[in-house]
Model the fold of this input.
Amino acid sequence: MQEQAPETIAPETIEVEVAYALPDKQKIMTLQVSPGTTARQAVRASNIVAVFPEIDIDAAPLGIFSHTLGTKGMPSAEEYVLQPLDRVEIYRALIVDPKEVRKQRAAKAREERAAQKAQQKAE
Done:
């Protein structure tokens, strides 16, 4: 008697998450998508703009578990095919360049040190 190999049936859908966060409000939406769905397609299918109408779905940078799509060898959001249980994160634009903030902080610290030295000399 020969053993039969178990049949592998492709799932009709896979479960993924779409996440977006503001400082005071966050939302993670779980949805079922067809295998072959891209990250950008999942964001559109989630209808997250009903909760956050300010999101520009076509322009927003996306990532998978903190890895920005389209950078560091990652495929773009239009090319990345989702795997089961992937979480697509929608990123907000930076308000201020972090390098500029560091420069401003360093300049302020220099000014404070100079003021302290001037005050010590005056005493």
